[in-house]
Write a structure and sequence with these properties.
mainly beta, about 40% strand, 4-stranded antiparallel β-sheet
Length: about 250
């Protein structure tokens, strides 16, 4: 029987993005996006190089838009420093990705590219899995009382069921760490998942039609943030994704 562990030791180590005005507060996936997920923590001394690597990713590779997502896990929080971006749901997401790929150990920093292990990040390589069974995906945003109304639309391919997530990702963040392995360091982050809502179940060959209200964190910067929609298959492998800068409103 397989055992599953987390290691509290670090491993050393789409769409075309448009301005909010041009996108009209909506976006449509025009090409197969490549989702790059980094599981990281401010409590891990080997994570800053991975954070910098994620920050420096190009907008696209081989014509495929890159959707970078930094999920901060909380299983380092008891070791001296509480990561303000951490969420236990991201621990569960990491565990699922590890199990799906036949692994036993979750650690930080850990990268998945298109749902598969992305250990090549240490040498600067991204191995992009082939895109297939692409859903049709659109996302629109409009101001709502106290937040934003997000509407995802589109359709799933025949014979492929899945699930939909909608979130908010922010860049230009920094933390002055005062304890733990990174004590004394100022850490800078990009593509941090600040809000994560879902999943919404998607039927094979069915319509994508989900409306949800999203509230921006009080300390977030709308100018540095973007909405993200991600469609996965039923096993959690990314099928399609897109991002939309937070719409600018008058006044």
């Amino acid at each position: 029987m397989k055992t599953f562990t987390r290691v509290l030791a670090c491993i050393v180590a789409a769409t075309t993005q448009l301005p909010a005005e041009a996108a009209g507060c909506s976006a449509k996936a025009e090409a197969p996006a490549l989702v790059v997920e980094l599981f990281t923590s401010e409590g891990c001394s080997s994570c800053p190089p991975a954070d910098r690597w994620l920050s420096g990713l190009p907008q696209a590779i081989d014509g495929r838009p890159i959707i970078p997502l930094a999920f901060h896990v909380d299983y380092w929080d008891s070791l001296g420093w509480r990561d303000r971006f951490a969420d236990p749901r991201f621990d569960a997401r990491q565990d699922e990705a590890v199990r799906r790929n036949g692994g036993r150990t979750a650690y930080t920093p850990q990268v998945f590219v298109g749902g598969r292990p992305g250990d090549g990040w240490r040498s600067g390589r991204i191995a992009a899995p082939a895109a297939a069974n692409l859903p049709r995906l659109e996302l629109a945003a409009s101001p709502a009382s106290g937040g934003w109304q997000l509407t995802a639309g589109g359709s799933m391919p025949p014979g492929v069921a899945g699930r939909l997530w909608i979130g908010l990702v922010e860049s230009g963040l920094s933390s002055a760490v005062k304890a733990g392995e990174n004590s004394g360091a100022t850490l800078r982050h990009a593509h941090v998942v600040r809000v994560w809502q879902g999943p919404q179940t998607l039927a094979a060959g069915g319509a994508i039609d989900w409306k949800t209200k999203l509230v921006l964190p009080a300390d977030s910067s709308p100018a540095q943030s973007r909405f993200v929609a991600l469609v996965e298959d039923s096993a959690g492998r990314p099928l399609q994704a897109l991002e939309l800068p937070v719409c600018r409103t008058s006044g």
